[in-house]
Each structure stands twice: as C-alpha cells, then as structure tokens.
Amino acid sequence: MERVHFLAQSCFHEQAEKTFLEQKEKILRLLPEADVQHVGSTAVPNSLTKGDLDIQVRVPAEMFTAAVEKLSTLYGINEGSVQTDYFRAFQDDATDPPLGVQLTVVDSELDVFWKFREVLLAYDAYRAEYDELKKAYEGKSMEAYRKAKQRFFARLMETPEFKNL
C-alpha cells in the first residue's frame, strides 16, 4: 500500500519554481497560445506538500485534441486519471520534483486547479484546514488521503470565494 508523506512547501519551493519555469518554456514552445500555471501546494507558500509539482495547461476547446497530441511528445499520459474531451492528465516522474500536468479546456468542468490555488492563496483559513487534513493522513494510505482531499475540494468549490472566481 502506498503511503503519503508531507513536508513544508518551503523545502521544495526553489526547485519546484525552477522546474516549473523550465517546463512552462517547453510547453509554450509547443502551445504558444496556452495559459500555463503553477498550481498545487508547491505554488502555495506556508503549505504542506507531497513535494510534487503540478502544472495546469489551459487551452480553448478547439485546441484540445492538438494539445493532447503535442503534450504527449513531452510527457506520459497519467493512465490512472480521468480522460475526457476537456481534461487529460500527464506525468513525468523523472523531473525534480516529479511532475503532473493537467490539460484543461478553459471554462470546462475541470478548469478548477488555478481556482483552488487562488482560494488557498487568498484565504489562509482554507489553506490551514487543508494542511490539517494532510497532517491527519501523514503516513497513511495514499488512496484514503486522495478521497479525503477530493471531499475537501468538493466542499471548497461550494464556497462563495471559489464561486466568485
């Protein structure tokens, strides 16, 4: 069983930001019109993180299929993730830190990652609540943590702070 562990975001910030900028440059060479954003806990100061880097790539609907093909030349498809006409997840475990790339159609149902980051940056109480959730799952099952994380973000999506974005 895979166990989850967390450290302070500050332990990863410098390397995560360096890797983000390198990957952003690669992505924009292939998709110059994309909106490429550093999301996830490494983008939120003072948070706890597993230490992986998350990037969201946002494209218009008419570019989605071409974007999937182009990003597939850089990264492997995350086979364990959902695949739709407006969302695709990629991964690269060889980068430092390991990388997840979420490709979304702008304004689609799963165009939420940048919004999560914005709420966690603007409202410290939500960030602290998320960190408490992580502390509760330290050393426990990754699957159980992912379920709890999903419930947290589903609840966050119902808040006025999220809905106003």
UniProtKB/TrEMBL annotation:
Cleaved signal peptide residues: none
InterPro entries assigned: GrpB/CoaE, NT_sf
SUPFAM superfamilies: Nucleotidyltransferase (SSF81301)
Gene3D superfamilies found in the cross-reference section: Beta Polymerase, domain 2 (3.30.460.10)
Pfam families associated with the record: GrpB
Name of protein: GrpB family protein
Naturally occurring in which organism (per UniProt): Parageobacillus thermoglucosidasius
